[in-house]
Design a protein that fits this description.
301 residues; alpha+beta; 3 domains; 13 helices
Length: 301
């Protein structure tokens, strides 16, 4: 299950004892505090703490005191300007701390975003639970024939069933051996820091992940993208919903300029200008490689 009884009791206790504060708070994200948002089969994301709001971004940009301008529209306009012109430091004034439960192989992708503070559950000291990520049948795909790091057609029938049987059997067999190695029943038992090497990459781990909004937006731009691996994308999608409630103006600008927008190279911009003048531009006359042209066509439709 996503939360252990002890963790659920902690959540209940924290939500039952609200504290008064003079710092800026956001009702939208307050509703998310401590609550787990289920992801995959055993994972979750939950907000542990946060700092700042849309006004904090504007305050930092103006280096002023208080809430900045009196007009919400003016603040939103400033935030859109900052996003549009790639001004990053004002967004760094907001931070969020998340508790995430995720498969180890997803964590290894996630940790490449090195601009965060991370503290992971230690299998040197503690025993990992028997919880593994097993894909749903509609997420079992063959290797893509056009993308070395992507998925292709869905596996079906006997092949899909065989793959699921292998994943379940191997995961449980590895965990059985893990328990046998660390057991001190009639033996000394192997050290936990060594026994963990035999565990599969689909076992679940947990960590606290603290990041500022600028670097969180970078994470979401890459991991909430349709081309990102499904197993990390669903975590990014869950986080994005929280961020939209936390800093709605900043998230709106991010959606518009980063997620919904596109960046063109100098060659791409030149091709657009030529097309607007009525010229028939092809890959051969564009100066782009086949891969660049294919991506360019995807942008301009």
């Amino acid at each position: 299950m996503p939360l252990s009884p002890d963790q659920q009791a902690e959540v209940d206790a924290l939500r039952d004892t609200p504290q008064s504060t003079l710092r800026a708070t956001v009702p939208g994200i307050e509703q998310h505090l401590y609550k787990p948002h289920d992801v995959l089969d055993h994972g979750f994301v939950r907000v542990i703490d946060y700092m700042g709001d849309d006004s904090a971004i504007c305050q930092a940009a103006r280096v002023s005191y208080g809430k900045g301008t009196k007009s919400v529209q003016n603040d939103e306009g400033l935030i859109r300007y900052l996003m549009r012109h790639w001004h990053s430091t004002p967004f760094e004034m907001c931070e969020i701390k998340l508790h995430v439960k995720l498969p180890v192989f997803v964590a290894r992708q996630w940790i490449r975003h090195r601009t965060a503070n991370v503290n992971e559950y230690s299998a040197r000291y503690s025993i990992l639970d028997r919880e593994f990520y097993i894909p749903a049948p509609d997420h079992l795909n063959a290797q893509s024939v056009v993308n070395n790091q992507g998925r292709g057609a869905l596996l079906e029938g006997e092949e899909a069933a065989r793959v699921l049987d292998i994943l379940k059997a191997d995961s449980n067999r590895a965990y059985d051996h893990y328990e046998q190695m660390i057991s001190d029943d009639g033996q000394s038992g192997l050290a936990r820091e060594l026994a963990r090497m035999n565990l599969p990459a689909n076992i679940y781990t947990q960590w606290y992940w603290k990041v500022d909004l600028h670097n969180l937006f970078h994470f979401l731009r890459l991991r909430a993208d349709a081309h990102a691996q499904y197993e990390i994308r669903v975590y990014a999608d869950a986080i994005a919903k929280v961020v939209a409630d936390w800093v709605p103006a900043a998230y709106g600008a991010f959606e518009d300029y980063r997620m919904g927008g596109a960046q063109l190279s100098a060659k791409g911009l030149d091709c657009v200008r030529r097309m607007l003048k009525g010229e028939q531009v092809t890959q051969e006359t564009s100066g782009m490689s086949k891969g660049e042209w294919r991506e360019f066509e995807g942008v301009i439709g």
